[in-house]
Design goal:
Layout lengths: L8 E8 L2 H7 L8 E8 L18 E7 L13 H15 L4 E4 L3 E4 L2 E13 L2 E11 L5 H5 L8 H5 L5 H22 L5 H6 L7 E6 L2 E10 L5 E5 L2 E5 L5
Parallel strand pairs: 1-2
Antiparallel strand pairs: 2-3, 3-7, 4-5, 5-6, 6-7, 8-9, 9-10, 10-11
The structure holds biotin.
The site of biotin has 21 residues, from helix 1, strand 3, strand 6 and strand 7.
Length: 245
Amino acid sequence: MADNDHTYNIIRFDSLDSTNRYTVDNADTLADRDIVAAEIQTAGKGRFDRVWVSDIPDNISMSIVLKPKGDPQTLPVANLTQFAAVCICRLLKRYGQTPMIKWPNDVKVGGKKISGILTRTVFSGMSLKAIAVGIGINVNQTQSLLDSLTQPATSFNILCGQHIDRDKLMTELLDIFFADYDAFMTAGFAYIRDEYISQCSSLHRELTVHTMSGDQSGFAADIDETGALVLETASGVKHLTEGES
Ligand code: BTN
């Protein structure tokens, strides 16, 4: 039986600019499975350098610090955001929700975003020093705050119709994450592929994906065994490893 280490150590801050920024800057002193959690973030960062609004307390802003052993080339580091998205979906299901994942890793309920994930890596030459899996979850936001955001958003308390115990929720998510983390790091994306695909809202339809090398349009046919989106375009089948759909 695998010798899974489910333990982790939560380091709490009242306020940080960004838990990801803190983790990257303190990669040497933080330990594997430390959790950097902030009550509020004053400069939370989202994907594509967007602002992640997180200056309201009683929500989840945290970075999971990981220092896996082994060759970073063979570890599924690039799929950790997808693994985290699957874990957040499992958490939402416990609360009676039907979550969907917009490729690659936006978690939504009823078409409204409830969580965002941004993973950062710290290298020293070729060696991987640390990974920060940054997770933001809307837990106890008011509807008016969510309405002020640029895209449709929801929160646990709105979906469940009651105040949610944030610390309990955070512990539940971390337990879900670490219950399968070792197996995921060994097996890679294949370990979660079926579960990911069954909840992926981006598939089996025409899609335009904004990538770093320009927009790609076509039919989203599949998610391949590496987690890439398989897009059938007019100029051939593309396997997209990054972008926003
Ligand atoms: C996104 O959907 O654009 C990703 C949002 C990621 C937000 C989290 S909150 C904890 C961590 N610290 C940050 O500054 N960002 C991530």
